[in-house]
Write a structure and sequence with these properties.
7-stranded mixed β-sheet, 398 residues
Length: 398
């Protein structure tokens, strides 16, 4: 029986100003997760009900998929500025603005210089407390006594430590009642505060027993996974990375602070290493770590994984995939990374993956590559290797 697949309707967010069709990036009609949540809706409702003046310099920080920036562009007034650490989030924002026929917002990354003035500062509380601390320090010079400062997040994302950061860096802080498991944060700027210097980026010496980087310095910008210490999964990976292979084109996929790719560069002199991550903070950390410890040809790119890397042009991909998207647990990112790696690898090229044992990555690798080998394992983690087979690569193209 033949059937015609119809594209799933784009989810619509109803705001005080208009209805907006919004998606995440990459778009997947099977993905049940929306491009907004109750925290976004609560903030937008508050702005409208309180009649907050949006005609001045409006700064939105950490908008995850562009719901806030798109809604504020639809509200009229001044053109908001969005600061995001997420390449995927900025891609989604551009798409959502175009889909809804809107223009105006300036889109900045966390590595760009922030605007000099903020009359309204809206903060979507990030998962990383360190990233919030760094951003509040960087934005404090733009805040003046009359700035309207409102944060938003789900109740499970807002802790006492979150409020203490707002209070210590910006000024007196209180919270709203919870609504649909979301909460708002209200801060009154205090220009007389002296919060001290921004502690980020953070540098520390790596432990012994991890290979060529043992005892060397790693550089972490705020928001990078396990920025204050080496996580146990990466430590295990570093102890078992391939050495002295004939790989000349290597990728650290989802590079974080770059210790995996930097180690590969040290064990493969003359190889070109590409560090890629969707976090701008991570890419900056990887470059700083590499420059601290290695020389040679290296590329650093904030991107959607290996998107844009030519097919069959890579010899070795090293990957410690995330299994969370903000607060949601999902294997979609890992699956996408594995598929991108298979496309980018030359025949005979290898993908090395570390992950929690219970995630069952070996099943996905066998489906994509036709093979999966256990390199090493302990009670918590496994390291797997999959090889791009020439015959399978030809079959996929036919």
């Amino acid at each position: 029986m033949n059937r015609t697949d119809k594209a799933a309707p784009v989810p619509v967010l109803t705001t005080p100003w208009s209805d907006l069709a919004l998606t995440r990036h990459p778009e997947d009609p099977r993905d049940p997760l929306r491009a907004w949540d109750a925290a976004d809706g609560y903030l937008l409702k508050h702005l409208a009900e309180q009649g907050v003046d949006l005609s001045g310099s409006v700064l939105v920080v950490g908008d995850r998929w562009g719901a806030l920036a798109t809604a504020l562009a639809a509200a009229g007034g001044g053109a908001p500025t969005l600061i995001s650490d997420s390449y995927l989030g900025l891609r989604a924002t551009r798409t959502n603005l175009e889909r809804n026929g809107l223009a105006g917002p300036s889109l900045l990354t966390t590595r760009d210089a922030p605007p000099a003035r903020a009359d309204v500062l809206l903060v979507r509380v990030p998962k990383s407390l360190a990233l919030l601390e760094d951003q509040l320090h960087r934005l404090r010079p733009a805040v003046h006594a009359g700035t309207v400062v409102v944060g938003t997040g789900m109740v499970k994302e807002i802790h006492t430590s979150t409020l203490q950061l707002f209070e210590r860096i910006i000024g007196p802080t209180r919270t709203s009642l919870a609504e649909k498991k979301a909460r708002l944060i209200f801060t009154t700027p205090d220009p007389s505060l002296s919060p001290g210097p921004n502690p980020w980026p953070y540098r520390y010496e790596l432990p012994d027993g991890i290979g060529p980087l043992a005892g060397r310095t790693v550089v972490n910008h705020a928001g990078v996974f396990c920025a204050e210490h080496l996580d146990i999964g990466t430590r295990f990976f570093l102890q078992h990375l391939p050495k002295d292979t004939d790989a000349r084109r290597i990728v650290d996929l989802g590079c974080g602070n770059g210790v995996v790719g930097t180690t590969a560069a040290l064990t493969h002199p003359g190889a070109e290493v590409l560090f890629t991550d969707e976090s701008y903070q991570a890419v900056a950390s990887a470059e700083a770590t590499y420059r601290e410890n290695a020389t040679g040809e290296a590329l650093f790119r904030a991107a959607d994984g290996l998107e844009g890397v030519p097919d069959a042009g890579v010899d070795l991909v090293l990957n410690n995939p995330p299994f969370h998207s903000h607060q949601a647990t999902t294997d979609a990112t890992a699956w996408r990374m594995f598929a991108q790696a298979r496309a980018a690898l030359a025949p005979g090229g290898e993908l090395w993956v570390v992950g929690n044992r219970h995630l069952g990555y070996h099943v996905k690798l066998r489906r994509l590559f036709g093979n999966s080998e256990l390199v090493a394992g302990d009670p918590k983690f496994v390291i797997l290797k999959a090889v791009k087979q020439a015959s399978r690569a030809r079959a996929r193209r036919q």
